[in-house]
Amino acid sequence: MFKYLMLAGLALFLPGLYALGYSIFEGPSAWMVDSRTFWGTPISLFVFWIGLAHAGTLLSAIFLALDIKLDRRTALIAELSTLVCLVFAALFPLMHLGVIENFYMVVPLLDARGNFANVSSPLVWDFCCIAVYALLSLLFFTTHLKTREIPTLEKYRKPMAWLLFPLVLWVHTVVSLDFAATFVPQWRGAFFPVYFIAGAIFSGLALMNLLLCTEGYRVRLLERLQLIFSWFMCAIWIWDLMLKGSICTSALIFAGVLPQLRMVSFIRENKWGRIALSLSVLLGLFLERLYIVSPEFGLQTSSSLNWIDWGLVAFSVGGFILLFFGIRRYLNMKMEGSSAYFGEVDGNDLADAEQQELEKENVDVRGIEKPKKGFYIQPWASEEYHVLRFPLLVGFGVAIAYAFWMVGQSVFANVDFSFANIVPLLYPIIALVTALTLFVRAYFVEHAFTLSRFEKWTCAVLLVLLAACAGAFFAGGASQGSNLSLDSQPVAVDRPVSQDHARLIWNARCATCHGAEGKFNEKFVREFYPVPQKLDLQRLDSLGSDSLVKVILNGRVNMNAYAGRLTPSEALGLVNYMRSLAKEGE
Amino acid sequence: MGMDRREFIKSCSLVAVMGLLFGCRKIPFSEVAGDLPSLKRFEDEVKLAMSQAKKTLDLVKIPTPGALKIPGASPMNRFGMAIDLDLCDSCGKCILACNLENNVPLVPAEDAARNRFMHWVDMRGNAPFMCAHCGNAPCERVCPTGAANHTPDGLSAMMFKRCTGSRFCGANCPVQARKFNFNDAQKLGLARQFNKEVPLRDQGVMEKCSLCLHRLQNDRLDFKTKLTVGVTTEDAEWRGRGVKTACAEACPKNAIIFGNWLDDKSPLVKLTKNRVLYAPRELADLDPSVVFMRGRR
Amino acid sequence: MAPFLNALACLIALGSALFLWRKGSSPYRNGALLAGFLVLFSVFCYFGGDINDPTLEHYPFRMLALCLCLSTTSLPLYRRRYLVLAQSLWCWIELFGGISLYYRGIDIAWTRIAALLCMTLCSTFLSKISKEMEFCLMVFWLAVWVFF
Q1: For chain A, what are the domain ranges?
Q2: CATH tag for A40-108+116-292 (out of 1.20.1630, 1.10.10, 3.10.450, 3.40.50)
Q3: What are the DSSP E strand ranges found in C19-107?
Q4: Complex prediction ipTM
Q5: Are A173 and C100 an interchain contact pair (Cβ–Cβ within 8 Å)?
Q6: Could you read off the pLDDT of A517-533 as tens digits, one per residue?
Q7: Residue C38 and residue C32: Cα distance in Å, rounded?
Q8: Looking at the complex, does the CB of residue B113 fall below 8 Å from at least one CB of chain A?
Q9: CA-nearest residue of chain A to B115?
């Protein structure tokens, strides 16, 4: 069954890949563009896939945190779907950029030029939230997989779930703030966080129901929730209609009206009926996202959807099918005894199995009898908090230190910051540091689990890659250097110009970067160029007048050639003046 | 008598050599036909833009701009412009001047048909309309890389090399004053560097009115140079007097006035003293530096 | 929104809360009720306030959050957990709604968010919620709504 799905996915993916390649080559003019906001299908797809990613975390992490029983198979499928959706969700904001090579400038970390990303921009919050979300979801998924071999890891799942619970809501809230924090009249909405989260959960439930249909069983709780959320979404659309006077009718039909057919038992009990309902919801919500992101879509001033847009949709859908079912088949094959995890079992049987497990679990690891259902433990005395206490402290500390360091950057000297500008960045940092501390402590201090050689190597390689990325982001791209290079021919110079003349030229041409006193002009240079070399006496002496004159005339990396604008005698005069400045500076 | 064979070959080869020498002379790149767009194309595009321009402009009264409210703002300089609606007759010379001064590229025919031009100055409501350099700019707030930022002397600056093309600033400008380089104008033969002081922009970056930053910078450098060699100037600090933006210079009616809001001797302050100042409704709360004026107080 | 209508809003929320989470009610009933209440609150805001006022944009959702908070006091099981969650929802709506409005030039109501956060944190320490405690909580929430 999976094989046929993968073939269908491939049929969608390949032309989609072509569309993606064409888009990256041509740039933003290739796809439908809204002339008011310049955003189009890639961002709609981004919001759509990020919303779908939340389903997985909702079902596995939030249900776990709230003690709502869900069988292990559904939870694992949910977590896997999160990870695959995230891959595509992360691709779209990257490919929609006008200058893709400059994407690293969005990362709020050190920069060799002394620059810093603008931390009050919702896009920077987006980047941090999604990066942290991806990492933590990966950790959560691998932990869940490994609890089979190492049951003691189970005690880390609930704390991670409690970390992920607010994080997943935070991610989609920040995505909604991309729109709600602007002046675009159609994006007017302080209610957008709730709106987007509801839409995300709704589409995620539809995706989960769809995936469960392919697995061959159903979880009635999820189907019920899907119906309830359709009502909730309709209520939100009614409010949106009142606020703005327009509504996306196709979304209302596909995701509002048609899902009500679930109440018809004939459709509900038929597998294809359920598949149709889920697909209808997904289609409706995608059209709604398109409607939100492109306010002028459909009007004369915007272009209409072309083949590239549909190609991008096909790319993401086909890619998801390929990747998800590919990994699924891999897990089927690789994991021994996987029938207990992914076997062809009906959901009802699993529910019984879980009930037996529940009775067994009443005696927990510490031998203390677990409290019965309904008995309340204060959160601060619970086991999960015990595990999380120290990592949370570290997380808070790092986040606060980071916030102060970030706001103190020199590039923000003219920017008015308020606490509200930085709040959305804080929780992802807390979650990231807490999770990392938790696992580092679990591995190195408590020896709660061991890693096989393969896993150790994978971790090491990932760390190296991460460090390489950080280094690349720090260095940034090179600015365009000059085309000329130094040659070994001596330069014909009759006499250098007078000191005064040289001083005039220095102040006019060189001082902007090198400073009037020969120490570089900090503010100007940091905004536009990498830091120039120090012009101290020892260095100037070691280089010699000849090569310095050549540098002035022929240029260097990041310094333009002055050959056409200065004569060699002026250049030599400048070199002498430079040395006199360096002597004064000693 | 006719030439003999030897002389014929000699004269032929001479002609050939002369032809070769003539062909090998260096042809300046700009004269090669078809590579660079002609000036006429730029003029025609301005006319087309003006014919498709919006006819209304929603203005509200605003107080005279004062000092910037951002930390580190200069107490001496805040540059801005005032556009006199009583004098302007929407001739469009300012738009052409700006395009030539800032090497603004042409756009392909499909974009022109949809009224999507790259001009930094648009004609709206029969008056020239450009970025207002808001003191509390919504575009700067949302730029992820910090490419859109505010200088201490009041310009909403754009750093092309720092732009990653997310187009968030363009989305958030309430009056759509920003333009995005959808096309590689140089590759398509739509760009021409009329002014060597201003760089041509790459595909994928946003651009907008810069209040002719390059003219201000030249003036500032000139002032500093004179200061270091002891040529007397009337002030100890640079105030940007005598600088005019390209649009202000080109206006035959002097309807565009550029100057320094914080300098009493600046023509901007002197000429706006008794006038009622207006700004577009959406920008009124954002502290714009570029205002409109009409009527007397 | 006028103060009188503000107070009326919290009364409506209180009244709606009575219908939620009744004993033996199916999730369908509760879900439909929640969606219905949202529509009711939306209609109230539409006719009660100036629709062009930005602070009104998340008003129905704030009313819904208040309604949920008030309704948790009558839950039979897991009352404290859902109490904390409902208050967190209200904090969430206030905080991120506030940030969205801040970016459009309107100040955030920090006192309201701080008061709600405090109460959320304090609620986690509750071990037994007596009727008096329930009443105090409800009064606190209504006071925050009306005065902050």
Answers
A1: 40-108+116-292, 484-585
A2: 1.20.1630
A3: none
A4: 0.94
A5: no
A6: 878 777 677 666 667 77
A7: 10
A8: no
A9: A301
